[in-house]
Structure to design on (435 residues):
């Protein structure tokens, strides 16, 4: 029988990598909760029609990339390709709008798109997303961008740039769309096949075609900025001013679009110059039309999503592996000692220490070697002799210093030992690349 393997475009995240994922998730969670953003968890599959209506049938995601299937009840379901549609469905379904004020939500989890897998592009990938629902205020756009920037900075990421644009409102875009189609139609034969397809269905998307010949044609196309209404222009200027106040650099990118009708005004991407082809780590913008499009009340909103695989690639390049967090590696040998070690490990954990219990019963020498590799700050050694006395031998792994003490002393003065462990960890973590 052929050996079983993870499917193309999916990956296992092994313990050697999961530490980076946890660092990422913890950093984001802390920053978002400081800003009073609360987590929402929605199902991984939804009715297909939610995404058709919520993302738009003319998009690549809906047209080519969805994992859709019929379940045993013959319903058409889809593994979510992104997080906004489900979040907005939940917002409407549970009447979050009627709670008044701004709903500040984040989500994190796997998304599914049938794409050609390559570095930074998978079929199951992970997004962290933010949605601020119920405000048209330019400060919300700026705050959303500021939070994305803060997360990326807290992770120590460099060489990022923020591209910013305004796609105006629906009527600005209708006028522009016509101008664009008029300009492009004579060149139709020279466009790449995807763009030719989009000429009728979704012409704005042609602006971000990656095809060189199409790009050359598009370079001379009319600019969306010339079609913004006075109000749209003002909003855009406000957002720029607020970003400047926040000390956030940006680059105006008139060709940056999120070519759907309910996307409005602010559109942005954060791009890394350390990632090669799949360089966008965060994309977002305002979507004032989406909630009503999905059957809810008129609700202006702004949000973004970050691709976590791409952030993990960046963190790996920086070798930003978090320092080990294990306090004690507990070694024991002998029938009495081994039984007692299990209890001691559990008690130490209840006192707040991180403890790995060696379960091998192998010779002390072999257990010590594993203690050295474990990343623990100290090794606790329990033989039958210590066990009978209620004692334990403690060896600081950095210095080799040893002491024998009553087990109760560890358990009754956890704070004292914690500060000693912390001091020892501070010395050992100097070798780890700072974040
Ligand atoms: P791209 O141009 O890279 O296909 P997109 O416009 O499809 O991106 P969004 O739908 O805006 O991307 O999703 C936001 C972020 O999620 C992207 O900037 C990227 O970091 C990440 N992302 C999107 N698709 C994938 C994928 N297939 N694998 C890994 N990350 C992805
Ligand atoms: Mg894509």
């Amino acid at each position: 029988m052929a050996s079983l393997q993870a499917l193309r475009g999916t990956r296992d995240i092994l313990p050697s990598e999961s530490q980076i994922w946890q660092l990422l998730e913890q950093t984001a969670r802390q920053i978002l909760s400081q800003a009073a953003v609360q987590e929402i968890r929605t199902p991984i599959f939804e009715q297909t029609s939610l995404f058709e209506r919520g993302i738009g049938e003319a998009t690549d995601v809906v047209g080519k990339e969805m994992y859709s299937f019929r379940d045993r009840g013959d319903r058409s379901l889809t593994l979510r390709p992104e997080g906004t549609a489900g979040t907005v469905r939940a917002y409407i379904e549970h009447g979050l709008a009627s709670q008044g004020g701004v709903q500040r939500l984040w989500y994190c989890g796997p998304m599914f798109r049938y794409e050609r897998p390559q570095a930074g592009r998978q079929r199951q990938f992970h997004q962290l997303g933010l949605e601020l629902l119920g405000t048209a205020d330019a400060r919300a756009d700026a705050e959303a961008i500021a939070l994305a920037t803060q997360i990326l900075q807290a992770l120590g990421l460099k060489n990022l740039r923020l591209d910013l644009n305004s796609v105006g409102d629906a009527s600005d875009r209708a006028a522009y769309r016509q101008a664009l189609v008029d300009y492009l139609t004579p060149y139709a034969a020279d466009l790449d096949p995807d763009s030719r397809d989009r000429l009728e269905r979704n012409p704005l998307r042609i602006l971000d075609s990656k095809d060189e010949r199409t790009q050359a044609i598009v370079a001379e196309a009319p600019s969306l900025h010339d079609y913004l209404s006075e109000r749209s222009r003002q909003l855009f200027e406000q957002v720029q001013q607020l970003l400047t106040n926040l000390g956030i650099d940006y680059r105006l990118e008139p060709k940056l679009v999120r070519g759907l009708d309910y996307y409005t005004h602010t559109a942005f991407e954060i791009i890394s110059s350390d990632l090669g082809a799949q360089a966008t780590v965060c994309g977002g913008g305002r979507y004032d039309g989406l909630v009503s499009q999905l059957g809810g009340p008129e609700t202006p909103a702004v949000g973004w999503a970050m691709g976590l695989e791409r952030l993990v690639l960046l963190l790996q390049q920086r070798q930003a592996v978090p320092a080990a967090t294990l306090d004690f590696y507990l070694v024991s040998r002998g029938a009495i000692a081994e039984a007692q070690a299990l209890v001691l490990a559990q008690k130490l954990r209840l006192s707040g220490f991180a403890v790995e219990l060696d379960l091998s019963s192998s010779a002390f020498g072999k257990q010590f070697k594993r203690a050295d590799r474990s990343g623990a700050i100290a090794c606790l050694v329990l033989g039958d002799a210590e066990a009978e006395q209620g004692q334990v031998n403690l060896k600081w792994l950095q210095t080799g210093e040893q002491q024998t003490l009553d087990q109760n002393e560890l358990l009754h003065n956890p704070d004292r030992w914690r500060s000693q462990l912390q001091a020892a960890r501070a010395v050992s973590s100097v070798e780890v690349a700072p974040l």
